[in-house]
Write a structure and sequence with these properties.
Number of helices: 9
Distance between the termini: 29 Å
Bound molecules: iron/sulfur cluster
Structural class: alpha/beta
CATH class of the largest domain: Alpha Beta
CATH architecture of the largest domain: 3-Layer(aba) Sandwich
Shape: globular
Helix content: 25-40%
Strand order of the largest sheet: 6-7-8-3-9-10-12-11
């Protein structure tokens, strides 16, 4: 099994740019998600967000708690209603399902959840839960004698032995349980995974292992993987493309190497500076100033302006668009607007 992230060859390096498929598997087009609250102002959790995810592509979605990234992931799965915009998977609209069964065309779009214990049934053996997923993926059930080998194969893909099938989820650590949850998802034959903070409930060593495991199985099977995390240092290691969200808005999107080495948006820069730097040149992280504002009362103009060290007189008055930094790189900051002189800043780290 894999070791610390720093010792790994980035999985993103094994994935062709733009993903390995012909077109996007998953497409979110200009979506809004608004949570209505009785007697209180609504919360605009996601505003005007668009993204695409191709087969074999790993995209990281990052931001602080409350930035809307998990809501975006749930919208991609059809788990929350949209106020505007569309989500399509393989060309099929992804609609909120309620109590209805997921249509066959959407069954290969699967989710990995934050809490592996909550995503598994504590009263059923691991093997029977994985066998159910195999049957669901095939659509026509399992013949006698097929379940055992299929379950063993799914467990092997996540580095676990066949004996795990006979045991119950509570017998395993958080990291092992997340492996089991991933095995169950893989057993259903997905083409696209949305992983919502899949490592945030785990200890540090398990975090690195699970992130690498997800990236490896996605790369090996040519799956699209939307990896949602508040940890930019993990996303840097596994994602070829990074999307940064702040207070419901996508504020920067581009190739991970570019975003990391010379972030265009001051928020991305602040997120990177807030990561502890290990090794001989270790330095204390620079904390982001202030807290994320109340999303029901977002600041005027640029939503980041009350916390932005580079804010100027235009920032509280107008909201910036997504400006092109390069053909594959966008930033929602006036400093990236064509014709606006950008202050000389070096790499964030
Ligand atoms: Fe900062 Fe202004 Fe850019 Fe917003 S638009 S990130 S406030 S410089």
């Amino acid at each position: 099994m894999t070791g610390a992230l720093e010792q790994e060859t980035p999985v993103a390096a094994r994935v062709p740019p733009g993903g390995g498929g012909k077109g996007p598997l998953l497409e979110l087009d200009d979506i809004d998600v608004v949570y209505q609250r009785r007697g209180r102002p609504p919360v605009q959790a996601v505003l005007g967000a668009s993204l695409t995810l191709g087969a074999g592509e790993i995209v990281g979605l990052v931001g602080e708690s409350g930035c809307g990234k998990s809501t975006l992931g749930r919208a991609a799965m059809g788990l929350v209603p949209l106020s505007r915009g569309t989500v399509r998977y393989g060309g099929t609209p992804v609609e909120p399902l309620g109590r209805k069964a997921r249509p066959q065309a959407l069954r290969s779009l699967q989710m990995v959840f934050q809490d592996p214990y909550a995503s598994l049934n504590p009263r059923r053996r691991v093997g029977s839960q994985i066998a159910d997923a195999v049957a669901l993926g095939r659509g026509d059930g399992l013949k006698s004698g097929e379940a055992g080998p299929a379950v063993a194969q799914a467990l092997e893909r996540v580095g676990l032995g066949p004996e795990v099938a006979r045991r119950y989820p509570h017998e395993f650590s958080g990291g092992q349980c997340q492996r089991i949850a991933i095995a169950r998802v893989l057993a259903s034959g997905p083409r696209c995974l949305v992983a919502d903070e899949p490592i945030s409930a785990l200890d540090a060593s398990a975090q690195a292992q699970i992130a690498n495991l997800l990236a490896s199985v996605a790369a090996d099977a040519g799956l699209g993987l939307l990896f949602i995390s508040h940890d930019l240092s993990v996303v840097r290691k596994i994602a070829e493309r990074t999307i940064v969200m702040y207070l419901g808005r996508i504020v920067e999107t581009g190739a991970t190497d570019s975003v990391w080495s010379a972030p265009s948006h001051p928020y991305t820069e602040a997120l990177i500076r807030a990561i502890p730097k290990p090794g001989a040149g270790a330095s204390l992280p620079v904390e982001l100033p202030g807290d994320v504002p109340d999303p029901s009362r977002p600041p005027s103009g640029c939503r980041f302006h009350p916390r932005c060290p580079k804010a100027f007189d235009r920032c509280p008055k107008e909201e910036p668009e997504m400006y092109e930094v390069s053909p594959t790189w966008r930033s929602r900051c006036f400093l990236a607007e064509p014709g606006v002189a950008r202050p000389m800043t070096g790499p964030a780290r």
